[in-house]
Amino acid sequence: MKADPRKDVAKVLIRRAALAARVKRMGKEIVAAFGSESLTVVPVLSGAIIFTADLIRELPLKMKINLINVSSYVGDSVDGDDPKILHALTADLTGRPVLVIDDIVDTGRTLRRVVEFVRGFSPSKLLTAVLLRKKRKPAAAVKPDFVGFDVPDKFVVGYGLDYNGLYRNLPEIAVLRPELYAAP
Ligand code: IMP
Ligand code: MG
Description:
This protein is α/β, with parallel strands linked by helices. The chain has 3 helices and 9 strands.
């Protein structure tokens, strides 16, 4: 049990049942917005994988999945540097409805970059869904269309979100013990 990631958790912010219930409701909101259109979902790797896996099973719509990878920075550490798209999309998004899915909006630069990139393919509709939105000052650079939860401006892990690549498999959204957030 030495490597059990749950031992590093200081506080659980959002429990499994609350995640499941909210994801289900988000599914309904998204279906209402897309109607019966078939769509392409564009999940942002790697943080969105678990949210995406649960959310798309709440979307009874014909869909294709096109993963996108974006270089990520934490918080404001590299202000002025725009996130980079690391690999191109393979599906044709032109004239099709698209839903971009990400784990969390902090500064909003990642989501803004992805939206900009996808918009370049001229989709017929482009909406965005994020599981979490950090309450921050100044406000984030983008307004996601669907938000699961607003969370405090703390570094959170679990349900796909990582710290140094770890903790994505925690089933809940949690804050780690402070001594773990040391400089690498
Ligand atoms: P942005 O600042 O909105 O561009 O967020 C950049 C990326 O940083 C997000 O897509 C996440 O992958 C990551 N990130 C931001 N805040 C957190 C956090 O609290 N936990 C884990 N990852 C985060
Ligand atoms: Mg991310």
